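REQUEST FORM: STRUCTURE PREDICTION
Request ID: SP-0412
Submitted by: Lab K.M.
Chain count: 1
Length (residues): 132
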Amino acid sequence: MTYWIKSNSATDFNLDAWMRDHSEVSWRRTNLFEVGDIVFMYATAPIQRLTYVFRVEKLFVTPPAEQSLYWGKGRKVLKPVQHDLLKLVQRIPRDKKLSFIDLQQHGVIGRLQGGRKVSGHLLDYILGEIKR
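STATUS: Completed
RESULT:
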């Protein structure tokens, strides 16, 4: 099992609105997630913090059609695309110290765009803060 941080921009996909009514989400495959991996979702500006914990359930092609209501303006899927099915493990409460600045103080270098593997001190910090 691998741990990841994956970024989400609400202007591209309103994840919070989607998660109000669902317990899983299909995510376009841009990283090499494997079934069983854990994904910490990072909300970009203006939120700039970890917001959800997901587990990768399966890999498939083409998202459910109803999800297109949550895509940003002008975004269209014109051909089949590989996706990961992410199952919600936990919503991360806002009181957790998992902002971008907190993550930088514990090992994040650079911007959190796309996806990156998490290990070592940073992973220990995130898991400890989520448990707290």
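NOTES: Residues 120-131 form the longest helix (12 residues).
Reviewed by: T.R.
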